[in-house]
Structure formats: C-alpha cells, structure tokens
Amino acid sequence: MAQHTRTRAAYDLLSSMRFAISLLTVLAIASVVGTVLKQAEPYPNYISQFGPFWFPVFEMLGLYDVYHAAWFLAILGFLVLSTSLCIYRNGPAMLREMRNFREQATERSLQHIRHRAEYELATPAAAVLQRATAYLAAQGFRFRTTVRGEDTLIAAKAGSYHRSGYLLTHCGIVVICVGGLLDGNVPLKLRQLAGQVVLETRDVPQSQVPPQSRLSPSNPSFRGNVNIPEGTSANVVFQNVADGYLVQDLPFTIALKKFHIEHYSTGQPRDFASDIVVVDHETGERFERTIRVNHPFVHRGIAIYQASFADGGTRMQLKGWPLLSPKVAPFDVAGAVNQATRITSGDTEIRVELSDFRPFNIEDLSANSAESSRIEVASVSKKVLAQLGSGAADLSKKDLRNVGPSFQYRLRDAQGQAREFSNYMLPLQLEGSWYLMTGVRSNPNEGFRFLRLPLDPDGRIDGHMQLRAVLLDEKAWPEIGRRFARNAVSGSTVPAEMRARLAESAEKVLQLFAMRGFESVGQFIEKGIPRAEQEKAADVYVKVLEGAALEALQLARERAKLPPATFEPQTLRFVRDTLTSVSDSFAYGAPVYLQLVQYEEVKASGLQLTRAPGQNIVYGGSLMLVLGVFAMLYIRERRIWLLVKPAQGKMLLAMATNRQTLENEREFERHKAALAGAVKG
Amino acid sequence: MELAQTLPQQQSWLRRLSWFDWAYAVALLAGAVVALKLYGDYMDGYEQAILVGTALSVAGLGWHWKAVRVLMIVLVAVSLWSISLYQGDLARAEQVFFLKYMISSQTAIMWMCFLYAMSGVAYWAGLLARADGLARAGTGFAWSATAMGFIGLLVRWYESYLIGTDVGHIPISNLYEVFVLFCIVTALLYLYYEGRYATRRLGAFVLLIILAAVWFILWYTFDRGAHEIQPLVPALQSWWMKIHVPANFVGYGAFSIAAMVGVAYLLADKGLLKRVLPPAELMDDVMYKCIAIGFVFFTIATILGAMWAAEAWGGYWSWDPKETWALIVWLNYAAWLHTRLIKGLRGPILAWWAIVGLLVTTFAFIGVNMFLSGLHSYGSL
Prior knowledge:
The complex is a heterodimer. Chain A is α+β, with helices and mostly antiparallel strands. Chain A is built from 18 helices and 26 strands.
C-alpha cells in the first residue's frame, strides 16, 4: 500500500506542471553555463585557464562539453518523461472535452457562469429555438439540443481545436527531444562506458588508429570533420570527443579535385566550393559534385558540407639570408606547409615549421588608413551631412590593393621556444621606396611587427644583403675606416694624424653598431660623453656612421664586382634604410630571413560530414509544435448554453470560455444583443 | 418571418472586403508577377516562392489591417521614385537633391530616426498633458518614421545591387540593418495594437525602446561607420535569411512592446501616471497578445534557423551560443504563457516577468554577439 502511494506520488510529481517548469528552468540555467564557458576546446586551454586544481573538478562536472554531459542528458530525459506523463495524464480528458458538448449542465451550474443573461420569451419556444440554433450555426457553433421535461437546452461550442493545441505542442516537444536524442551521442557514450570504444589521444596517421577507436560505417548518427588536400582523398572523418578523437569510417571515398575560393573586390570571401568525387564502396557508384556553403551533397543519408578551408601543403622554394653575419651567400630551403625542415645558422640548428600560405592579401594602403576610419571632429550638421546619401561605402577613402602572396612559419630554438613569422613575397612601396616586409611575433595573440628590408636601386634584395654583410664584417672595418678618412676630408693639407683619428672613430662606430645597432651606439654615448654634449655627439656619430656606411656600400659593390654607386639621394636613402634595417634586425629574433622565391599552391577543403537520422523526426515535431502553438493561442474555445423554459416564459443564456480575454467579453455582448432578437414577438 | 432579419449576423470576412481591397491585392500580385518576369531568372525556386508568398501575406495583412494598404502604396511609390532617380548610378545619391536629402537609403534612415524622436516627444507630451491632439501627432510621426525606415531598407536593397550584382542582397544581414528592421517592426506592431485597442497612451512607453534602438543606430553610424553596405559572407547567401531574420524580429519587437507595456502596468500599479494610463486589464491584455504573437513568430524563427543551420553548418542544433540563448528565450516565454494560461496568474508578477524576459531577449540578440563567440557572428559589434 505504502509502495503504491509512493509510486502514485512520484507519478503526480513527474507529471505536474510545477515539475516541468522547474526542469525547464534548470535546463535554461545549465544551457547558460555552456554558452559562457567555451565548449570543446583543447584540454590544455582549460588547464591554463582554471589551473591544476579546478581543471579536474570542472572536467568531472562535464563543463567542457555541457550539452553531452550525462547530467544534462538526464535533465532532457526527465523533460521527455515529465511531458509524456503529462500527456498521458491530461490527454484523454482533453480529447473527451473536445468532443463533449456538456449538454448535462444543470440550470444551477449555468447560474454560476460569469457571462450570462436572461430573456423574457415573447414568442413561442419552438420559434425561439429555431432562430437561436440558426444563429448559432451561422456563427460557427456546433450544438446539441436536449429536452428536459418542458425545458429545452441548446449546448453549443466552437473552437474545440484549441485543446488539440495542447496535445500537439506537448507531443511536439517529446518528438523533438526523441529525435534529438537519436542524433545525440547517447549510444556512443554508453559504448564508451562499456569500454567498447576508447578515445585516441595520440597524433598518429589514421591508418594506425586501432579498431577500438574506430566507428563502423553503419554507425547510425555521427558528425565529423576531415581536411582533404587537393588531389587526395579520404574515407574517414574525425570526431573530436573530450581530449581525444575517434575515427569514423565512411561507406564511400571522397576525393577532392579542386577547391575554389572567390573573392569580392574588397578581398572578403564570396564563395567557397569544392569539386568532389564520391565513390561508393559497396556499389562502386561515382558522383561528381560541387558542394558549396549552404549547398551540401547527401549520399547514403550522410550529408557532406563545405565547412572550412586551409592550406593543403603548398610547396615552397625559399632562400635563406643570414641577417647578422658577414656571410653574403644565401642558401636554398625547400619545404611545404604543415611540414618542418631544419636550417643551420652558424653552429645552431633551427627548426622551421611552415604553417600557412596565402596566395594574396588585400590591404588598405591609404596613407592615413588609421585616421580615415574615424570621422574628424566637425560640427554636428557636417557630420550628419556626411552620412546622407547611399549606404555604399566611400571607397575613395581607402586604397585597397592586393599586395601578393605571403607565407607564415615558426622558428623553434633548441629550448622549444617558437616565434612566428609572416613574410610577403613581393616588395611593398612605402613612402616612395620599395621594401621586403617580414613580420614577427612571439605571441599568437599579438599583431605582427614588421622588419623592412630595403631593395637596392636595382630593385633587388642582393645589394642590401651585401651591404649588410660588409657592415657586420669586422675584417672590413679598417678598410672602410681608411676610405672614410680619405674621402671625408679632401685636400693634402690635412694632417695624417687627423686622418688616423677619423679612421679610428669610423671603425669604432661600426664596431659599436655591429653590437646592437643604434641601441649600442646610443648607450656608448650616454655612458662616455657628458650630458651637455650628448646631442651634438650623437649627430656626429650618425654622420660618421652614415659616411662609413656609404664607403661600405662601395666596398660591397667591389666585392660583388659591381661598378661603384653614384651618389644620388636614393643611394643615401638606401644606405640609411639599410642601417635602420640592420639595427632592427637585432630585435627580429631570428638570424635568418626567409625569402619566398617560388611556390606551388595546394589548397585543402575542410568538410563536415553528418548523419542525423533524427532530423526529419525533429522537423515533424517542430511542425506539430508550431501548429499546436497556433491552436493554443489563436483558437478560442467558446461554449454557449441556451436554456429555454416555456413554463416560466424565460430563456437563459450562458457563455463560458477557457480563457478570459477582452475579445470574449466583446463576443458575449454581441451574442447577447443578437439573441435578444430570438425571443422577440 | 425571415430568421436572418431578426437576428443580425456578422457578415463573413471576405464579404466585407471593398473594391479597394481587391484592387490592392491584385496590384500586389501584379507587382510580384512583373518582378518574376524581370528577375525570375536570377532567383531559385525558393526565392520565387518567397516573393509570391510575401505578396500574398502583405495582401492578407492589408485586408485585415486596412492602414497597411496605404503604407504599402507609399512604400512602393516612393521606392520606385527613388530607384528611378538613381538611373543605375550610385554617384547620383550625392548629386540629385531628392536623393541626397530625402530618399536615398542613408538619408531615409536618418529621417526615420528624426521622426521617431519627434513621435516619442509627441507621445510623451500627449500623455503628460492629456492632450489627444499631441498623441495623434505621435501616431502620425510614428507612421511616417516607419514608412521612411522601410523606404530606407528597400532603397538600400537596390543600392547594394548598384555596388555590384554579386554584392546585392536583402538588407537584413548585419547588426546595423537589423536594428532598422527592429525599429520598424516594433513600431508597426505597436501601431496595430494602438488602433485595435483605440488607445494612444502606451505609445510613449513603446517609443522609449524604439528610441533606444535609434540611439544605437546613430552611434553605430557616426562612431563606427557601420552603415556601409558590406557583401555577404558565404554562409549568409541563402534564401533562408529572407524568412528567418524577419520572423525573429517580429518576435523581438513583440517581446519589447510587452516589456514596455509591463513598465507602464507596474507604474500604474504603483499609482504613478495611473490617471493617464489605460486600465490595467487592457494593458494586461496587450502584454499577453504581444507575448503570444512574439512567441509564435519566435518559435517559427527558431525552427527556421535550425533548418538553415542544418543546411549551412551541417547540423540543425549545435548548441551554439546563439542557438542556446534562443532556446532560453523560448523557454522563458513558454513558462510565462504556461503560468498565465494554465495557472491563470495575472498582475504585477507577469509584468515584471515580461521586463526580465526582454533583458534575456536583449542578451540573446546583442549580448551573445558582444560577449560570446560562435558560429552566429554576423552581427558582431
């Protein structure tokens, strides 16, 4: 007995609206957690975010994948249960109520209804009944007439489908949840718990992934990703789960023939598309298709989506230029994106990880691109006037240009510390001169800081590198000093001693400069020269340095067997830019500049494959839900009773609605007035 | 004796349509047919269906709410005038007087902002001074602002095609455009209830939320320059956008009105402005009506969104922050409706709840874009 009442109590609780609303609230709050905390990130991110203490706690609570956590699925399960019980409990009564005319209503019960009226009969009852029923029928009411002794009761109703709304919405929710659970990963979770499926956490080729980490092609529902480089194919996708992944075998092979990106003139991507060939393993059927965003291809219930794109291993020919050594000769490096090669610089070996390649880059090169995005401070009316007109962007303010290919790589030293570099292949014209640009950053969250390598007047990098090498070559300094002393002051009257001092100071400046560029020259001045004379001294040092550098240029050209440079303004500018560039190289963080010489682009397309057998169930449930909501909110159930009592010469009108609204009030007044005509003589 | 004579029947809805109603509907359909003839080749089947469906729904809306007929005539006339002034050349927006100062898209939207501000002032003055004339002016301003906003969007649609045929798209694709959409949808919904309940007293409150959106539009334009037409990212190039976004904004607009009426309700409940505000039952009913219509449209919008997601992102539900917050909004109003309809609760609690509901909705609309990242990042600030 006690057992029975407890079951009954549990049933009452589970099927109660209070319980359902509480579940909805909990569900809402739990969902918030999942939106605030980024889901399904790599685990190391969480460790660094929460620290070693909280990380395992949150992991245990399933906070890194809230929506697939056992407790979250349990809430959903309870919601389905509670809603089903609610339908079971109230559904039959609802259906009965829909059919019922409530013709058994007594006069007393009608007297308790809020909307009621009484009329005096001025015409025979039969005529009243005839008029009244005709009226009700015309108003869309269905009715039953019952005779009780002398009295006649007309019980009428309209809008009964209102109640079907209740059933439809609640069934809809259950159907949606069932469909969702079918597509969710509950079966996979269970198999994981049973130990049949084990996550793979190693970074190994998919062919080496053991069977317990693979899912068969018959797996009813999955969602995985795969990157396919052009000219290759794949017959698996990867499903990321927690801190590992699973390999999902496919019943077909997808080959990527070509990946296309189209761009708008502003450089934003306009279209991503993949030309794929799908070959079915079982039937050998072949489908050539082009898939694009919003236009997937479906085969065997598996939908293939264009999800992302990446570089698929572009092959590159690079030239390595030593930046801080007296050696001029560049060396060749060959590599491909996503591969690593090693280069040697002096005695150290550096690992180069090529990470990305971009065939073109659209940049805003307007001189004041930073300023022009802001509107200058002007009067309000001027500001408003500036905004009138079409919604088209004012392109005159921008100078969008394709600055050509770029590639990115990381250099990793023996300690494993990496710096990221981004180099443009083509030179860029800045303030009238041409430079090769190389960007560097030590933190992926930062922007790149750029080192400019000036091109020589012939438009090549070689002259710059030759000059650089001479500037850093200590063996060359005495010669440079001599030449500087000879050319700086002309005439035979200059004492030899003074020339020797000049040569010495030029040598000294070069030596200082070769330590850490302008920085070390500055430090020397700050330390060795009285404060009052520092500014003047700095001027002199810079003049000497520039003079020496001009001599170095001639020496470099001699070494390269080139004719001497003529002294034009651009020569001086080139020398100055080289000095700046060498000085900045000390902070560049790499001893080598990698120049992109040639490339052969290979793109990769990121595809997402899903099989979701529950999808149509969910859509069906959604349709039920929408129809149900319409019925619930916009069909008003109304019941009218007319009790005609010829003996007393009276007629009683009562109208009940399931909901109090202003419309119902108005409608009652309308019927009341209209029915007054039915009793008239 | 004829029964029909004694008992006055309400005429059926179709019978009550005038020749003007029919002419209006025929003109709309004719417009749709012309559009199909001219541009049908550039549309896919879904887009053609949406075009015809829109013509039919606007016809039906005009039959149900007569004022829409006039609005539509104005919109069509002015937009076509604007397009004819352009002569296919964007630069004429700067040269032609009427384009520069009246009916190019940006100018029209600026007019919309100005007229809503006037409307707000007039409604408040009318409310506080209990001057019906002022309140009527508020209604007039609100209608003209709505018309200008609509014209702005329609002309913007055309302008986007002038930038480039591949750039052209319906202007509901980023935060700037949907804020304009929000203003006009909210105002239209309000104007509907204003006519139906024959009270202008709530306009002051509804205009507050519209003016908040106007303020945002102005800030976004002048400080961020966000009004510039941007081409669509590939994920948004779909006919789904044409139905998903408007349906969502009917929801947002209706929830906003409900919350603002909730504010009025609570003020009256505390005895503030009680003498000038409509009776509590009326406000309660408006609040319910708005949440009901908002809920219906929000449900549809969310389902459409899920179907679009299935096509664009590979799954109808990914627990993306936007999806999740849409679910939270939906759950919130589902609970609100349960409490009112099943439990029969009325009064200040529901008004408070409607206001909290708007906070949740606002977070789902803007907060998610600002603070959370995800797939749905088109509307980021």
